[in-house]
Design brief:
The chain is α+β, with helices and mostly antiparallel strands and 81 residues long. 48% of the residues lie in helices and 22% in strands. The chain is built from 5 helices and 2 strands. A two-stranded antiparallel sheet has the order 1-2. The chain is globular, with a radius of gyration of 15 Å.
Length: 81
């Protein structure tokens, strides 16, 4: 049996690097705690609650689209039942 799963890759660190913005500066612009932004930056697989409001703020501050921050990767795994 083959199961296809998808992984959503979180690209915040890459987008921040492209825009040359540090997490403390981004936190100030977002009105968020720097520790929260640092945790979001250091996550590479989307495994936290991302609200539409937060995604909207990130896109506005970073001048990007949601697709710049999120990347879909399809994984294929064989599972024997």
């Amino acid at each position: 049996m083959t199961t296809d799963t998808m992984t959503i890759k979180w690209r915040l660190a890459s987008v921040m690097a492209d825009r040359e913005i540090k997490y403390k500066e981004l936190a100030d612009k977002l009105g968020m705690h720097p520790v929260t932004v640092n945790k979001m930056k250091n996550t590479f697989v989307l495994n936290f609650r991302l609200t539409p409001e937060t995604l909207n703020k990130l896109c506005l501050v970073l001048n990007c689209q949601p697709g710049d921050l999120l990347k879909h990767e399809e994984d294929s795994a064989d599972i024997t039942s």
